[in-house]
Amino acid sequence: MRIAIFGTGGMAAALGSRWTRHDLTVSGRDRGRTAKLAAELGAEVKSWADAAREADAVLLAVPSSALDELLPSLNLSGTVLLDCTNTPGDAEPPGTPVATRIAGHVPGASVVKAFNLAHVDVWRMAPPTFEGRPLGVPLCGDPAAVEVAAELVRDVGATPLPAGGLDRAPLLEATAAFAIGLWKRGADARTMLMS
Ligand SMILES: NC(=O)c1ccc[n+]([C@@H]2O[C@H](COP(=O)([O-])OP(=O)(O)OC[C@H]3O[C@@H](n4cnc5c(N)ncnc54)[C@H](OP(=O)(O)O)[C@@H]3O)[C@@H](O)[C@H]2O)c1
């Protein structure tokens, strides 16, 4: 699969490092950091536009606020967009869901909400298992795009959890905001989902 990684920070590096069997490109706004991550991943450096045009899937590992400016100018027709973003803030309910905004910017692309519920340190685990059980990764999007995302979840060593269409992505964004809010107040948010 041709995967374009947008961003050069923690999420880009952690997830990209699990996908090196694929054909990877890295795009970022800082030339040095982009070249460094690309070298680490054995990836090619590409402009946002070239990477978008050629990719089967794009990981959007930049702040959600950057996407409004970045996405509208790109040719992403037929591309799967992996939206791992969370809105900054804590327990406040997010405003317009990011996944909805993205889908509006690039109507020809297929947005999948994915990878937003776990901290970057979890994505650095190889594989991410807890008490002997693999991490479950909920995916919201159309079924064909979710199947693409599911392959990449399996590459991470986690279990894909198809969780409905993109209309359910706001639930994932709200869940993250709620958990991050608890965590920032010192609570062990992970314990609330243990079974
Ligand atoms: N960290 C987590 O635990 C975690 C977990 C789940 C989801 N997420 C989400 O994943 C996304 C990336 O998070 P991260 O932790 O990887 O952040 P990060 O380490 O701070 O990296 C952010 C990346 O986005 C780039 N960027 C920032 N503003 C930009 C702009 N206006 N235009 C283009 N690129 C821009 C940064 O470039 P520069 O280096 O030039 O600043 C950097 O490459 C965020 O949406 C976040 O909400 C994070």
From TrEMBL:
Domain Pyrroline-5-carboxylate reductase catalytic N-terminal: residue ranges: 2-86
GO molecular function: oxidoreductase activity
Keyword Oxidoreductase: yes
Keyword Mitochondrion in annotation: no
Signal peptide as annotated in the record: none
Record keywords, A-Z: Oxidoreductase
Entries under InterPro entries matching the protein: NAD(P)-bd_dom_sf, P5C_Rdtase_cat_N, STEAP_metalloreductase
PANTHER family noted in UniProt: DUDULIN-RELATED, REDUCTASE
Protein name listed in UniProt: Putative dinucleotide-binding enzyme
Source organism: Amycolatopsis jiangsuensis
Lineage summary: Bacteria, Bacillati, Actinomycetota, Actinomycetes, Pseudonocardiales
